[in-house]
User: What shape does this take?
Amino acid sequence: MTESLRWVKSSYSENGGQCIEWAPEHAVATGEFLVRDSKDPNGPHLALTRQGFAGLVEFAKSHE
Assistant: This one.
């Protein structure tokens, strides 16, 4: 299933290569927020709840 997803880079991807991607359409359709390392697109991904994804975003913002 994840092969056919459209992955979008984080807006924080200009921080020296430490970036993630997420699948926004999948999140809208299922409520499951998929996140992966942009440097390893064929590697594993995380499946987060809306609250978990919001927490990840807040963590990233506070550690710029």
Q: What stands out?
A: The first helix runs from residue 24 to 30. The helical segments are 24-30, 50-62. The chain has a mean pLDDT of 87.
